[in-house]
Amino acid sequence: MKRISLAVLALLVVLALGAAWWLSEHYQAQLDTPMALDASERFQLEPGQGLRSVSRTFAERGWVDSAWVLEAYGRRQGIAPRLQAGEYAVTPGMTPRELIHAMARGEVVQHRLTFPEGWTIRQALAALREHPELIGPAESVGVDNLLEALGLEDLGHPEGWFLPDTYFFGSGTEALAVLQRAHQAMRLHLDRAWEDRIEDHPVKSPYELLILASIIERETGRGDERDRVAGVFVNRLKRGMRLQTDPTLLYAQEPGVQRLTRAELDRDHPYNTYTRAGLPPTPIALPGRAALQAAARPAETNDLFFVSRGDGSHHFSETYREHREAVIRYQLGGDGSRYGIRNR
């Protein structure tokens, strides 16, 4: 009788071990079997959604056979309190184990938005509103009250204060949060440019450097000319000459205006650098890193003038006479009798 009992006990132990082995293999297989997907999908983990709810959703979608397997694994691994809300990419070949760990690490789908160099803050706001994955900004937020919405009222005017770049973010991100990052990036690069400026620079503050950089950004898109364009403006500022640059006047016009009339050139206002010396009161665009650096460390030349060649490049001159000849050649087709435009 005793031998029979021992045999039964041994059998039960073997069966228990076998069951435990089978459960372990089944458990691991569910976690490591690629989910049934024909194409990539997105999974939205809502704020406050817990491990049990996530596990049930996985089971409902056929990604695991049993919700309890994923839930038990998640609790054993300490994943439950680390789940991060957001949008996650689920791709063919991905396993439940990989996805649940991605959620614990917060590896949300990254969307992007680019602010090109030379954009205005109005254009940046429009792009933020049009992006389908961003929240806001509210229609009530515009150029006039943007700084208040960002808690940056001390800056005075928002133009120029946001660095052109490509910004990545998760779905449902507040648009103003993207602008905050762009502003922090601009602060960083503006401070670096200010610290790196030439010793005898005519601008008196980082904000004036920002204004100058925005003008340089709008005057040329050619990297090989940017420093030289900056040199012309710095040379003029040192001599007390008017900058006489069209982009500042265009900034004061209605959006979309590309050409200036004689009347607009003559009309005096703070952005008319033909009638007023010095810099305009605010930046006229969002300057990029290269424009900031060019403004801080311009080319050392004697140039005081430049004129477009019509192919995207410019001709630079040291004297007004040289400049006038270049204008006749590149702007008036060589017909000096029609010369009637202002000098730079």
UniProtKB/TrEMBL annotation:
InterPro entries cross-referenced by the UniProt entry: MLTG-like
Keyword annotations of the record: Cell inner membrane, Cell membrane, Cell wall biogenesis/degradation, Lyase, Membrane, Transmembrane, Transmembrane helix
One GO term (biological process): peptidoglycan biosynthetic process
Gene Ontology MF: a single term: lytic endotransglycosylase activity
A GO CC annotation given for this chain: plasma membrane
EC number: 4.2.2.29
One family name in Pfam for this protein: YceG
Catalysis performed (reactions): a peptidoglycan chain = a peptidoglycan chain with N-acetyl-1,6-anhydromuramyl-[peptide] at the reducing end + a peptidoglycan chain with N-acetylglucosamine at the non-reducing end
Site (Important for catalytic activity) residue list: E219
Record NCBIfam families: endolytic transglycosylase MltG
Family: Belongs to the transglycosylase MltG family.
Function, as annotated: Functions as a peptidoglycan terminase that cleaves nascent peptidoglycan strands endolytically to terminate their elongation.
Name by which UniProt lists this protein: Endolytic murein transglycosylase
